[in-house]
Amino acid sequence: MTQRRRGAAGPAAITEDPGATDPATGTVVLALLAVDGVISAVTGALFLPLYLGSAPFPISALLSGLVNLALVWAAVHWTDSARLASLPLLTWLITVAALALGGPGGDIVFGGPGVMGYAVLLFLALGTAPPAWFLWRRSSAS
């Protein structure tokens, strides 16, 4: 949508309104953010059994939570609905649930000896806490 500034004449006076976007653009962006939630879950899950020396170092759980926070923050700028803004987080959770199921031949993504047996709980807690907190704060502020 174009607007003309007051008191200005000529072609240089026409400016684009940054707040006016096509609804289809918002839908496409939200769909891409939802796909990014899936990518965040898969990437975080595959890097979860990372070791630093001989000690488990599941830094991908924290990084996945920060990425989810960024995705939800971006989604908030494209919609007023908290349900639609949480779409990247929901697709992340659905993907983690699908990865928690055994694959063909009994293959598993989450699991391992000792502490790594509980890594999925850490992954869920750190992956959902930052974006859930952001959505909760945003809904309680309005």
UniProtKB/TrEMBL annotation:
Q: Where are the transmembrane segments?
A: 28-51, 57-76, 83-103, 115-136
Please, which domain of life does this record's source organism belong to? Answer: Bacteria
Q: Which UniProt keywords apply?
A: Membrane, Transmembrane, Transmembrane helix
Keyword Transmembrane in the entry? The reply is yes
**What name appears for this protein in its UniProt entry?**
Uncharacterized protein
Taxonomy, top ranks, is: Bacteria, Bacillati, Actinomycetota, Actinomycetes, Mycobacteriales
